Structure formats: structure tokens, C-alpha cells
Write a sequence for this structure.
């Protein structure tokens, strides 16, 4: 039954432990997402470099009349792929910056909580 004069809260130590566990889980999830984005970016950058080089060789072959028929359409498709890749890399960069900012904010919150003075416990029955 609730008291008319106040309510009980959990101990500050229990709150601190709960917050610490929650922050650790949150940081772990954010780190996992950041690593996934990094892996995607690394793979895209590798494929971008390879495709750029292949497009360059194709342009040289076309300039020297050494390219097979249909090379122009292939080059157009490669160009579209490179543009799409650049867009995705830009989006990943924005997402990675956001994730880093979120991790920094979460860490700042942890530091603030760590530096906060301990809560005082009121005597039983006090308001």
C-alpha cells in the first residue's frame, strides 16, 4: 500500500548498478552497429576502386577502338554503379558520424553520473 506521505525508491547503489549495466549494453549495441557500418564501407570502397579501374581500362580500350560491341552500354552501367556507390558511401559516412556522436553523448552521460554526488537516503518514515 502506498504511503500518504511519500514513496520508497530503490537504493542509489542499485540504481547505479542498473544504469551501469544499461550503459554497457547500449555501448555494446552501438559498437556492433559501428563495426557493421565500417565493414560495409570497407567492402564498398574496395569494390569502388576495382570498378573505377575497370571503367578506366574500358575507356582506354574504347578510345583505341579495341573494345567489344556493347562496351558503351557496359560503361554507362558501370558509371551508374559508381554513382550509386558514392551515394551509399556518403550515407554511411553520415551514419557513422551520427553513431560516433551518440556514443560520445552516452559516454558523457556515464561520466556525469559517475561524478554526481551520491544520493542521500532519508530515514525510514521521513518525508
Amino acid at each position: 500500500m502506498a504511503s500518504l506521505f511519500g514513496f520508497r525508491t530503490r537504493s542509489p547503489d542499485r540504481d547505479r548498478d542498473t544504469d551501469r549495466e544499461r550503459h554497457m549494453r547500449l555501448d555494446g549495441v552501438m559498437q556492433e552497429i559501428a563495426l557493421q557500418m565500417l565493414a560495409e564501407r570497407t567492402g564498398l570502397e574496395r569494390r569502388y576502386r576495382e570498378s573505377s579501374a575497370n571503367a578506366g581500362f574500358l575507356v582506354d580500350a574504347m578510345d583505341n577502338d579495341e573494345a567489344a560491341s556493347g562496351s558503351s552500354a557496359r560503361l554507362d552501367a558501370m558509371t551508374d554503379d559508381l554513382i550509386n556507390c558514392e551515394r551509399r558511401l556518403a550515407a554511411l559516412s553520415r551514419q557513422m558520424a551520427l553513431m560516433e556522436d551518440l556514443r560520445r553523448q552516452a559516454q558523457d552521460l556515464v561520466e556525469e553520473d559517475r561524478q554526481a554526488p551520491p544520493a542521500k537516503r532519508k530515514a525510514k518514515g521521513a518525508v
Summary: The mean pLDDT is 88. The two ends are 16 Å apart (CA to CA).
